[in-house]
């Protein structure tokens, strides 16, 4: 018992010590961050509504009217929308996006408790530190600070916290379909995309402004056969037929594609990327018809998705008994589709590739969206906010190979920009993985970034 009490005292002392030297806004944000990490908002835990109600209470205490705070229950999860009223002189609202749910984290797999914010060796550890309770924290802390300071925006600012981005994404779909008046905006800023890159020595390299996302779509490839007794093998076999189809998929490449975002990204990244990869990026940015450059980029897992649609087998099942010939075999193929390409077109391509004996069936619903336009006001404001913390760092558009709630906003006609501002090394990227973490310094920089960004875009000096 004594040891337990001593540990609690030491832990509390360490938390106070690590928070020393912070200003009042930073202390408030750190305390809020710790509180939000503690909510176990994994699927199946029922904690997203609890966290949403906690946040709603913080906004009510800060003076936001109840009529501007909307809690939307949805099954075991929920969404929260909070409107910061402006005077309307600056135009239509800006939506600010993050999600409250996190990927499952098992305590026995982690070195530290994933649902306790731990500050250690210059990092904040915990599930959601990067994806994306840091975003929930900085947006909430920014609203609380601006309200205390008496800031009156020139346009409404609307926080949109969804509750199932990591799973079904039903809450964002429902908000846009049934409560469009709550979340409608001229454009949206998404904390769950974009961000800063540090080299392995911790120096800032560039800032990625996400302006496009690929469409997430999955298909089942299925073969059928009459089957029979395994002691009487036949030439046609459902598993072998599926294997032949997957071999065709393995060697197939969709055509090379590009847009303004990917070309600008390769140009900027090529300038700071050494060796053959950097050279290929520069050549592709100058001439996307350069086959040699495209071929080299296709061999890089982190880059291939920026140059074409990709489809890859991810799940496999087949047969029904150890001593029977398989009557069916099925593979799940996950595709990340280049913006502007229809899901149905990809399905037709797969069907033609594998042949008429293999059924290609979509799984669930897929949502496509085009790239957001490169708005001058957003580019300028993001540049100003980035340079407030890292002067001179280049800001470049980028296309996400993954998918976020921003995809739904774009598809609904609301241009969306990924402006997460955690600067991080590639070697520190553990979102969805074990021992997720972000640099402590980047968290506090993120607070300054959002203060500059919001007061620039919604201040009375804004264009």
Automatic annotation (TrEMBL):
The keyword tRNA-binding does not apply. Pfam families: M20_dimer (PF07687), Peptidase_M20 (PF01546). Residues 212-356 form the Peptidase M20 dimerisation domain. One of its GO terms (molecular function) is metal ion binding. InterPro entries: ArgE/DapE_CS, Bact_exopeptidase_dim_dom, Pept_M20A, Peptidase_M20, Peptidase_M20_dimer. The keyword Signal applies. GO terms for biological process: proteolysis. Keywords: Hydrolase, Metal-binding, Protease, Signal, Zinc. Residues 1-19 form the signal peptide. SUPFAM superfamilies: Bacterial exopeptidase dimerisation domain (SSF55031), Zn-dependent exopeptidases (SSF53187). PROSITE patterns: ARGE_DAPE_CPG2_1 (PS00758). Coiled coil: none annotated. Belongs to the peptidase M20A family. This is Peptidase M20:Peptidase M20. It comes from Aerosticca soli.
